[in-house]
Amino acid sequence: MKKFVNDPAKFVPEMLEGIFLANEGKLKYEPKFNIIYRADRPNKSKVSVIQGSGSGHEPAHVMAVGPGMLDAASPGGVFAAPPMEYCYECIKLMNSPQGVLVLINNYQGDRMNWDMAIEMAEAEGIKVKSFIIDDDVAVQNSSYTIGRRGVAGNFFVIKACGAAAERGASLDELLAIATKVNANVRSMGVALTSCTPPAKGKPIFELGEDEIEVGVGIHGEPGRRRDKLKSADKIVDEIFDAVANDLPFKSGDRVALMINGLGGTPPSELYVLYRQAALRCKKAGFNIVRNYVGNYCTSLEMAGASLTLLKLDKDTEALLAAPAEIAVRVF
Amino acid sequence: MKKFVNDPAKFVPEMLEGIFLANEGKLKYEPKFNIIYRADRPNKSKVSVIQGSGSGHEPAHVMAVGPGMLDAASPGGVFAAPPMEYCYECIKLMNSPQGVLVLINNYQGDRMNWDMAIEMAEAEGIKVKSFIIDDDVAVQNSSYTIGRRGVAGNFFVIKACGAAAERGASLDELLAIATKVNANVRSMGVALTSCTPPAKGKPIFELGEDEIEVGVGIHGEPGRRRDKLKSADKIVDEIFDAVANDLPFKSGDRVALMINGLGGTPPSELYVLYRQAALRCKKAGFNIVRNYVGNYCTSLEMAGASLTLLKLDKDTEALLAAPAEIAVRVF
Question: What is the rounded distance in angstroms from the CA atom of residue A99 to the CA atom of residue A54?
Answer without folding.
Answer: 24
